[in-house]
Amino acid sequence: MKRRWVHDDSGAALPLVLVLVTVIAVVLGAVLSFADTSVRTTVNLRDQAASAYTADGALQAAINQIRNSGFTGAPGQHCFGGSDTLTLPAFGGADSAAVSCTADPAKVLIQCQSLSVCNRPGNAILTLGTGGEDGLNIQQPTGSSFRVHGVVYSNSNINVVNGSLDTNTAVYAKGACAGTIRSTPAASCGYGGSSAGADPGYAPALTSVPPRQSLPPCTKAGSLVTFTPGYYDDAAGLSAMMSSSSKCKDSTWWFKPGTYYFDFHNNAAVRPPSLPNGEDVWTIDNGYLVGGTPVDESGRIVATPSVPAKIPGACDNPIEDANAVGVQFVFGGDSRLAVKAGQAEICGTYSGSKPPVALYGLTSGADAPVTATLAPTGVTPGAFTDATPAKVSTVDGNAATWVNTAGGAQSATLATTGYTPTAAIPAGSILTAARVRVVHGNDNGSTQDNLSVQLGSTTAGVPSYGDNATHTDFVDVTNALAQQVYDGAFTGAQLSYIAAVRHKGTERLDALQLELTYTPPALRAGSGCTQLPYTTSAACALVTSVNNSGNRFYVQGTTYAPKAALDMTLNNATEPIFRFGVIARSLWVKLTGSVTFSGPIIEVPDDSPGFVFGVYLSAYVCPGAGTCAPSGTAAARARVAYVDGDPTNPVPGKRQVSVLSWSGAR
To answer: What is the pTM of this model?
Structure first.
């Protein structure tokens, strides 16, 4: 019997099942692998988000803490009380954070509510002379550039002898312009509009003459010599101290914060013995002058400046610190300042309402001589038996008398005391005349009588007459009192009348008075360079600097001398010479070939709507840690500005905050 093959699907299911199981296993493995990756990614993203939230919150906490503080970035201050790091333990649940803070050096300290209420001048250079001389004269090597940051305005002309005048903004001259001027917009010469060239009329920091100060001791080279605010009148003494032959050469001359009035009297026709003869020019020819609050190289306030001082950067700059307390050097009369081989840096005082004027040339004021007639209040009559203070204090015919009934040589002395001024004579007063008024006579007079007055150790003769009339004579005692008056030590005198005769008769003394004429210190308008036109040969500029290899001169503040000429030769500048603008009658500047500084020589900061102080903040997050310190890569960063109505007195909690930038870690 033949076998039949039956064709069916018996046994085919097993391979299909195996294939299906394999495919499902592969797909399921891939799906499970993706799911695991997704879960881990989700966890990581959640951790990153938590870290970012923690970092953002830490920055916000730091911003708010500064907002509620008085921190302004002044030297010696820290962002968060005693530290520049804000620690935030357990800030994000199980995480901790820390924020580091650094003051933004690009802070702006300018407040200009209006043109009239502004703490910076409207011009970098403003010259007020109206004709007959160059308003601005610039001399420099051919091809050089004299750079200015701010407006240049001359009420007369501008003369760029060589090179070019370059400013970042406008140039105006009411007169002609000569030479190359580059500005935006183009220079406007022969300009006839705007009041921007008017004298701003800044007031000096003093309204009366401060107490006279003696020069400090000068005994050791390379020392710190400290000056106290007040009135100084001895240019020769200052110059001798600050010379290369001085006992204290190579010293740091520190002028403590405050107002200084310089009105020199070395060339006065009448001087006290202690005031040497010479020009009224203070010359800095050695050492390092620092005016204002001293700072170290990092800008932090220190107790005293270093010896030698590092100039510039030796005093707290009001352009960079709203808490800066500096000096104002006020010059009166024909007083002048010359910087030769010495170095000088003068820092003004910050104000939110007026420029920090560091150098001031007085524009008004004059001497006011005083004449005082002083009378005795006490008498030792001697032989003038009827003498009283009343009889010899006034010219009234009621005389004290000595009745001499003996022949031969006889003498009598009437001694008086008192002569006290009704108002104290201030130190620094120049005594121009002192004389004793003697009203006397003898009813049997003789030209052979020996009459005299004695003031202290000084004895001076009085004329005698051969009649019986009453005579008035004046005896000069200026030299005897000049130093005492100058020292402010004159409070009265002892004065005697001595009569020696050889005949009988009655000696009469109707009055014995002391007349003083003196000139007390006064705020005097500048008079050192009044002739027109100014030329460099005139040698009468209020401030001069000369071409010397050791010369450095910086004014960190405004220079205001609207009736004076300034004559500057610059060769070692490492930063702007005149910060915060120059206002003068005429400005002459000469750059030597050794000037390498490529920035503006004279500048005035740009305006801003208010006081802006900025900080850089960096937030660090430490997951799962109890504490955190700034290290590694910051989780977030921010740059934040604070705006205060009054930068010198910020009100915690009232400060405006502006976030300038905000970024997370890369």
So the answer is: 0.75
